[in-house]
Amino acid sequence: MTMKYLKGSLLLFFCSISGCGTWNASSLIVPGQGMGPFRLGMTKADIQKLVKPEAYAEGEQNGLAIISTNDLDSTRRVEMELDDQGKVRSMSIHGDRSVWHSGHGISLGTTLSKLAELNGRPIRLHAFDVSEKRGWVLDWGNGLLAKEWGAARIIFASPMRAPGYDGMSSQQKQEIEKDRDFLSTDPEMRALNPWIETIEICRQ
Known about the structure:
The chain has helices at 3-18, 44-48, 112-119, 146-149, 170-175, 187-192, and strands spanning 29-30, 34-35, 38-39, 56-61, 64-69, 78-82, 88-94, 124-126, 137-139, 153-156, 181-183, 196-202. By secondary structure, it is an alpha+beta fold. β6 (78-82) and β7 form a beta hairpin.
């Protein structure tokens, strides 16, 4: 075995156990803890130490302070909500793709079918009506992801953006807009196969 081949083998082994490229701890989502270097419970000063001034912004939403990082790059943007004590109580990502991901590969753009596959059991979600819970994951059915993701919020994008929407019947399209819940195994959800648009984690 040549030295060049040995080095290549060691590199492949290292990547397989620790991750390479965008799949590493610096961009890892850990429900109940944080995203990459950003941790729930951090203060504004803590966050400012981690990002450049041009990648930092402050705002307000529903009377609570909001900190946003990397506003100019939607794939890296994270929004953090502070509590009354100025500590991060929740953080979220939103869009069609992101560098932030879980150890299982869950991220923006992950489809319902893939999420259910990782969970090992059907997932219950709310329909795409006009309610506040539109497209929310409501229950993991005691699946493999239930313990880790039970306190997180996952919201699927508009059904019209889902890969299967155009192929659905008019009756199916009307059904998914009703005020009701679905399982990932229901015919309508299997046909639609929506993808994740929002991930929010909070302190447990």
